[in-house]
């Protein structure tokens, strides 16, 4: 009867002398594990987004939160005239990154996505472009 | 029949089948890149290799090898798979891997086979092609770097379209699918080549980058332009019709379309669509609500009652036309209802009515390929109904049909193998046809015992070949020869296109040609008879449903006159654009200006709608359900693909609301009205909307043939004047295709076509601005110079709003004009 109680208190006591696992966020920052799936970024190459508007990511996205609209540039090439992700619906599965045939999309370590207005969760192409 | 075994399955097929056909008939899929069911076997891609027990030692192409009795075929063995993989590797050696930006992805045979055969590496390596890509063409983008040399585009353009825009140029590794002298593509723009291209080498430019194939919602419908009644599949996304999708199993035409059906769908999504009712207040249109607009309209119509005039277009569905008739003839009690200017349907509603006792012609589209001799009245049959033109091409080239044309000009079909065109003076077709009948009777080629033969003989006594030769300008021997050929053919079919551009193709001409068919006993026989080709998608339906004055009411043009002189107190115009398409534009405009009250329901603020007091926004074929009845009496369903633009309502809703407001019956839905049609229109008896299915139903016909002698009208002539004939341009249909974008890229301006001789005499060159002047008015057009016209004849299409040809015409078959720079 008394033994389990003692065992429990032992565990509690031992923790008093261990380093705490909680972080004093935001003063302390977490170490982000490799492969973490945070906010998306559209990769840039030669000053332009690499995305060729193939529509594979909106096709594969299980949350149906990506909107792409293709355009034709001056050289008749395809580019994403519109690229938007609705972060409120995104489930951060990373399928979009996996589907991209031209490696134009990645997921960053950015996880602080809180905001005040619904509209602010719609990440347009400008906001998604990779920051160097 | 031949029996063989394919993959252990017993197959029995006709003896002219190939192994590929035989496999397909039992659902065994053999991969292939260079074959389309409409084309002759080619054997170019080597994907369809199979193993035949009796021909061991090598692999056999299934698409070109005919079946033989007892053949044992295997379609997938390790060796075959290896060979197919090799074919794909070799194709991918040159084919760029740009699927992410290629519009064909998802619908690409090469992509699908590469995936199916798991070709994920290549044992060979080479440079890719570096051909220049044709970005200039407004409708067809050609990227020959993606071409896999299947030759389908060249074959469909040659075998079916009979245009021949492509051929392979150069040899070996340099070979490329090219145009004449590798120049820009300038053709009929039917888009057939795009539809069969297995890869993305040919793509539709208006659809370029608009959506991926798999994201499109595919909705089956029927083309809303001409009377051919081609079935279409609309590619829809986000409430927009983005393209037409090819389906080789659709319709009698196996998915084949003309430029209008393929590229002229953009009017559905146009930004210029009317989205709200408009009421004219102090000379200006003001947006209004439906309640206000309909209240005003029903008050005015109710007040005018029997003196209402109502015009409609034959683009409306059968159900809408039914309500149109119920509202105006029934509820309001006016017989002043008509469509197509009153003359463009007369061949059916008066001609066929007198000749056969029904408002329809006795033959079907299928008869075109079953006949032995085709007699086409006017080469324009190709321009008015291009896909029926393809049927003519196929009949002549594949079935050995003899083609005879009676026309005032040559045309594309005149160049078909063995075709003979008798080019007569404009406006003399009835005299010509009467002469044919005269010869048939005189030479005792008429079937014995035809009722009324003697009267006809007497009435046509004056139309001897010699006399008619003087009138028509066709040699008497030619007339006699044609009459004999026609009479001698085992099966013979006459094709008569009608429409707003052809005032001469009236009731009399219909009876004259019907006489030929009746005299030679061609009515009610397969592959024989007469096919009257209604201009619009539902011209036949409008005739069936009685959209024409029946009890002495005013006819199309007279309704317009009535609006001017006060006889018509309120004028309702549904979708028709008389300002552009009816004779004498100035007169129509003046009449509409003077009219007491005009209501127009249309998709756009057309030239006619500008004159209206109330404009009601209507919807296109893609935004409603219903049925159309095509040439050859096939009733087919259209399906709603997108939501109506803005507040627009279908004519069904508009007419139903008005009918109810004027204390007529309110009908439930389209199916209910179709049920009413089936119950009240004899030909539609027993049909149900759901029973129509994808194929539709061909209405039965029981012609009671009767000979009617008709007199040829006098043809005006004056020295120094040219004879203007109007008609349809290949890229357009009616006045709606102008809003379809596609046609406007390739044929955007009104033009007049002159013969080389006249052009030379008048010092006019292609592209010059010319003035065409008649007693009625004058108009400035772009000149086109063509070999096909005889001297003294000018041709002008009627579709264009700016510089419309009805500025100079007044409803006569031939208008005398002077042409100058
Ligand atoms: S992470 Fe998943 S849910 Fe989020 S956008 Fe990508 S595919 Fe869609
Ligand atoms: S999958 Fe890649 S290239 Fe395609 S649309 Fe998405 S980000 Fe762009
Ligand atoms: S669009 Fe039609 S006419 Fe033009 S090349 Fe293609 S198949 Fe031939
Ligand atoms: S363009 Fe297309 S249809 Fe024509 S040969 Fe090349 S792959 Fe075949
Ligand atoms: S316009 Fe006529 S021929 Fe062309 S696709 Fe439409 S129905 Fe067929």
From TrEMBL, chain A:
Entry's Gene Ontology molecular function annotations: 4 iron, 4 sulfur cluster binding; iron ion binding; NADH dehydrogenase (quinone) (non-electrogenic) activity; quinone binding
Entry's transmembrane regions: none
Topology versus the membrane: Peripheral membrane protein
Cofactor note: Binds 2 [4Fe-4S] clusters per subunit.
Record bears the keyword Iron: yes
Cell location: Cell membrane
EC number, as in UniProt: 7.1.1.-
InterPro entries recorded: 4Fe4S_Fe-S-bd, 4Fe4S_Fe_S_CS, NADH_quinone_OxRdtase_chainI
Broad class of the protein's primary localization: membrane
Name of the top EC class for this enzyme: translocase
PANTHER family, per the entry: NADH DEHYDROGENASE UBIQUINONE IRON-SULFUR PROTEIN 8, MITOCHONDRIAL, NADH-QUINONE OXIDOREDUCTASE SUBUNIT I 2
Homology family: Belongs to the complex I 23 kDa subunit family.
Entry function: NDH-1 shuttles electrons from NADH, via FMN and iron-sulfur (Fe-S) centers, to quinones in the respiratory chain. The immediate electron acceptor for the enzyme in this species is believed to be ubiquinone. Couples the redox reaction to proton translocation (for every two electrons transferred, four hydrogen ions are translocated across the cytoplasmic membrane), and thus conserves the redox energy in a proton gradient.
Subunit structure: NDH-1 is composed of 14 different subunits. Subunits NuoA, H, J, K, L, M, N constitute the membrane sector of the complex.
Protein name, per record: NADH-quinone oxidoreductase subunit I
Organism: Geomesophilobacter sediminis
Gene: nuoI
TrEMBL record, chain B:
UniProt feature coiled coil, ranges: none
Residues covered by the 2Fe-2S ferredoxin-type domain: 1-79
MF terms in GO: 2 iron, 2 sulfur cluster binding; 4 iron, 4 sulfur cluster binding; metal ion binding; molybdopterin cofactor binding; NADH dehydrogenase activity
Classification via SUPFAM superfamilies: 2Fe-2S ferredoxin-like, 4Fe-4S ferredoxins, ADC-like, Formate dehydrogenase/DMSO reductase, domains 1-3
4Fe-4S ferredoxin-type domain residues: 138-166, 177-207
Name recorded for this polypeptide: Molybdopterin-dependent oxidoreductase
Keywords (A to Z) from UniProt: 2Fe-2S, 4Fe-4S, Iron, Iron-sulfur, Membrane, Metal-binding, NAD, Oxidoreductase, Repeat, Translocase
Location in the cell: Membrane
UniProt cross-references to PROSITE patterns, sorted A to Z: 2FE2S_FER_2 (PS51085), 4FE4S_FER_1 (PS00198), 4FE4S_FER_2 (PS51379), 4FE4S_HC3 (PS51839), 4FE4S_MOW_BIS_MGD (PS51669), MOLYBDOPTERIN_PROK_1 (PS00551)
Tagged with keyword NAD: yes
Recorded GO CC terms: membrane
Domain 4Fe-4S His(Cys)3-ligated-type: 79-118
Domain of life: Bacteria
UniProt-listed InterPro entries: 2Fe-2S_ferredoxin-like_sf, 2Fe-2S_ferredoxin-type, 4Fe4S_Fe-S-bd, 4Fe4S_Fe_S_CS, Asp_de-COase-like_dom_sf, MoPterin_dinucl-bd_dom, Mopterin_OxRdtase, Mopterin_OxRdtase_4Fe-4S_dom
Pfam families registered for this protein in UniProt: Fer2_4, Fer4_Nqo3, Molybdop_Fe4S4, Molybdopterin, Molydop_binding, NADH-G_4Fe-4S_3
Sequence similarity: Belongs to the complex I 75 kDa subunit family.
Gene3D superfamilies named among the record's database cross-references: 2.40.40.20, 3.10.20.740, 3.30.70.20, 3.40.50.740, ADC-like domains, Dimethylsulfoxide Reductase, domain 2
PANTHER family: FORMATE DEHYDROGENASE H (PTHR43105:SF14), RESPIRATORY NITRATE REDUCTASE (PTHR43105)
GO BP terms: respiratory electron transport chain
Main location group: membrane
Sequence ranges assigned to domain 4Fe-4S Mo/W bis-MGD-type in this UniProt record: 216-272
Cofactor(s) listed in the protein's UniProt record: [2Fe-2S] cluster; [4Fe-4S] cluster
């Amino acid at each position: 009867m008394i033994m389990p109680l003692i065992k429990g208190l032992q565990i509690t006591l031992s923790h008093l002398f261990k380093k705490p696992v909680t972080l004093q966020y935001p003063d302390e920052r977490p170490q982000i594990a490799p492969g973490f799936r945070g906010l998306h970024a559209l990769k840039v190459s030669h000053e332009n987004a690499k995305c060729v508007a193939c529509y594979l990511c909106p096709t594969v996205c299980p949350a149906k939160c990506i909107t792409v609209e293709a355009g034709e540039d001056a050289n008749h090439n395809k580019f994403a005239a519109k690229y938007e992700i609705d972060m409120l619906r995104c489930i951060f599965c990373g399928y979009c990154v996996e589907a991209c045939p031209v490696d134009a999309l990645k997921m960053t370590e950015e996880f602080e996505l809180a905001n005040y207005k619904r509209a602010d969760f719609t990440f347009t192409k400008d906001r998604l472009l990779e920051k160097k | 029949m031949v029996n063989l075994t394919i993959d252990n399955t017993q197959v029995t097929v006709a003896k002219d089948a190939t192994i590929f056909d035989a496999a397909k008939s039992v659902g065994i899929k053999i991969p292939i890149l260079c074959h389309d069911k409409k084309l002759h076997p080619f054997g170019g891609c080597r994907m369809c290799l199979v193993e035949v027990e009796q021909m061991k030692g090598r692999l056999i192409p299934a698409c070109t090898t005919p079946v033989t009795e007892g053949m044992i075929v295997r379609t997938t063995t390790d060796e075959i798979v290896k060979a197919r993989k090799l074919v794909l590797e070799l194709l991918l050696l040159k084919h760029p891997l740009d699927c992410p930006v290629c519009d064909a992805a998802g619908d690409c045979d090469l992509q699908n086979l590469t995936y199916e055969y798991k070709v994920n590496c290549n044992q060979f390596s080479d440079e890719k092609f570096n051909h220049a890509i044709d970005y200039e063409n407004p409708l067809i983008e050609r990227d020959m770097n993606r071409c896999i040399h299947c030759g389908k585009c060249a074959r469909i353009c040659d075998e079916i379209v009979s245009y021949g825009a492509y051929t392979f140029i150069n040899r070996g590794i340099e070979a490329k699918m090219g145009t004449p002298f590798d120049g820009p593509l300038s053709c009929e723009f039917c888009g057939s080549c795009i539809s069969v291209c297995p890869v993305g080498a040919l793509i539709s430019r208006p659809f370029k980058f608009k959506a991926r194939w798999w994201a499109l919602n595919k909705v089956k419908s029927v083309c809303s332009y001409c009377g051919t009644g081609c079935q279409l599949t609309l590619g829809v996304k986000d409430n927009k019709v983005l393209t037409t999708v090819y389906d080789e199993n659709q319709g009698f035409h196996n998915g084949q379309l003309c430029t209008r059906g393929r590229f002229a769908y953009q009017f559905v999504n146009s930004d210029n669509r009317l989205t709200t009712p408009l009421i004219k207040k102090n000379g200006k249109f003001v947006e209004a609500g439906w309640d206000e607009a309909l209240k005003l309209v029903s008050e005015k119509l109710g007040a005018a009652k029997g003196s209402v005039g109502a015009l409609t277009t034959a683009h409306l569905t059968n159900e809408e036309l039914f309500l149109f008739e119920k509202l105006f003839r029934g509820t309001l009690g006016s017989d002043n209802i008509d469509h197509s200017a009153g003359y463009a349907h007369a061949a059916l509603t008066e001609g066929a009515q007198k000749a056969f006792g029904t408002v329809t012609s006795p033959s079907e589209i299928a008869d075109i390929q079953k006949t032995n001799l085709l007699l086409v009245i006017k080469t324009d049959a190709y321009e008015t109904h291009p896909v029926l033109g393809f049927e003519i091409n196929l009949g002549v080239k594949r079935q050995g049909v003899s083609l005879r044309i009676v026309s005032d000009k040559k045309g594309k079909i005149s160049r078909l193998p063995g075709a003979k065109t008798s080019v007569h003076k404009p406006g003399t077709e009835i005299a010509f046809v009467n002469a044919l009948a005269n010869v048939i009777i005189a030479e005792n080629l008429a079937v014995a015992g035809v009722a009324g033969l003697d009267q006809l003989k007497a009435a046509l006594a004056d139309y001897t070949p010699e006399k008619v030769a003087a009138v028509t300008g066709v040699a008497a021997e030619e007339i006699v020869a044609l009459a004999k050929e026609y009479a001698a053919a085992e099966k013979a079919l006459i094709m008569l296109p009608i429409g707003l551009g052809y005032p001469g193709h009236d009731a009399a001409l219909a009876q004259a040609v019907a006489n030929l068919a009746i005299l030679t006993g061609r009515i009610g026989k397969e592959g024989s008879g007469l096919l009257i080709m209604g201009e619009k998608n539902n011209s036949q339906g409008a005739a069936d449903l009685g959209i024409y004055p029946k009890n002495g009411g005013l006819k199309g043009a007279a309704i317009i006159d009535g609006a001017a002189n006060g006889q018509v107190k309120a004028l309702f115009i549904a979708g028709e654009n008389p300002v552009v398409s009816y004779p004498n534009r100035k007169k129509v405009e003046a009449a509409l200006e003077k009219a007491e009250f005009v209501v127009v329901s249309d998709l756009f603020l057309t030239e006619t709608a500008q004159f209206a007091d109330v404009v009601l926004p209507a919807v296109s074929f893609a935004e409603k359900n219903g049925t159309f009845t095509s040439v050859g009496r096939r009733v087919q369903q259209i399906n709603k693909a997108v939501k109506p633009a803005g507040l627009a309502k279908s004519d069904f809703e508009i007419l139903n609301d008005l009918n109810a407001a004027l204390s007529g019956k309110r009908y439930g839905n389209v199916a209910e009205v179709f049920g009413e049609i089936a119950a009240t229109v004899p030909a539609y008896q027993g049909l149900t909307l759901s029973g129509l299915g994808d194929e539709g139903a061909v209405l039965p016909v029981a012609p009671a043939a009767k000979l009617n002698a008709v007199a040829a009208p006098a043809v005006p002539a004056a020295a120094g004047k040219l004879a203007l004939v109007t008609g349809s341009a290949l890229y357009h249909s009616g006045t709606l295709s102008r809003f379809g974008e596609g046609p406007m890229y390739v044929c955007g301006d009104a033009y007049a076509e002159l013969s080389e001789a006249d052009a030379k005499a008048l010092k006019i060159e292609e592209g010059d601005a010319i003035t065409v002047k008649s007693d009625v008015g004058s108009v400035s057009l772009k000149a086109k110079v063509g070999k096909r016209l005889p001297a003294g004849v000018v041709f002008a299409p009627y579709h264009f709003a700016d510089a419309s040809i009805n500025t100079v015409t007044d409803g006569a078959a031939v208008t005398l004009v002077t042409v100058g720079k």
